[in-house]
Amino acid sequence: MGGDEMAEIHETSPEGPQDAHAPTHTEASPPLVAFDFDGTLTVRDSFTAFLKWRVSSGRWTMGMIRLAPAALSYLFHRDRGRIKAAAIREFLKGVPQERLEAQARTFAETHAQSLFRPDALAVWRRWRAQGAKMVIVTASPDVVVAPFARGIGADLLIGTKLAYDLNGKVIGGLSGPNCRGPEKVVRLRETFGERVKLAAAYGDTSGDTEMLAIAQERGYRIFKGKPV
Q: CB under 8 Å to 201, separation ≥6 — which residues?
């Protein structure tokens, strides 16, 4: 994502009350702060929006009809990774990684203003100004979230990974577990060590519970802002 565009978002987003959700970490080492993405930094699910954006309305409708059995089976197994893999097979199977990355960049460039919560960005900016290491931990595919993460200056993105074949095309499934629930802490520990502690964590669903549990400051569903 273009740095100038995202800089504009930073400058125009309302700061909100200065004492609300303000970071208070004072240790000498840089604080580690983790944000969920969909529903926390954004107002809706970015992956669903991306899938719908890249196809025609007719193709989207047909795809959703084909996904009906997977949606029905989810009521029994409750495995979000399985239904996500089914959506990937339906809408992305065979797409070259390079093309997918380019489409994700275009999507981020055209949708950042309508997706980001201004109050969430304000808290993100305040932590970053304090020198915190900023991490996005999301169940959405990292290839889709990466341009957004770069645009707001994330130090690291941890997300669900898509599986590709030897020719770099989407196979139609996940490479590794869905990055949700306990897996978010597993991935944080793989990156920062078994004893990782977060200065703060922000999330909006039960899929963030474990990540919030290892944070000193826990923000659950505290962001309500809507894009202007």
A: 33, 34, 35, 208, 211, 212, 214, 215, 217, 218, 219
Q: What is the pTM of this model?
A: 0.86
Q: Give 65-82 as a DSSP string.
A: HHTHHHHHHHHHH--HHH
Q: Say how many C-beta atoms besides its own lie within 10 A of residue 116's C-beta.
A: 23
Confidence of residue 78 (pLDDT cuts 50, 70, 90): confident
Cα angle value 142/187/46 (rounded, 5°) = 25
Q: How far apart are CA 133 and CA 193, in angstroms?
A: 15
Long-range own/partner contacts, residues 22-25 (CB < 8 A, 24 or more apart)? 22/123, 22/126, 23/123, 23/126, 23/127, 23/130, 23/132, 23/199, 23/200, 23/217, 24/217, 25/130, 25/132, 25/199, 25/200, 25/216, 25/217
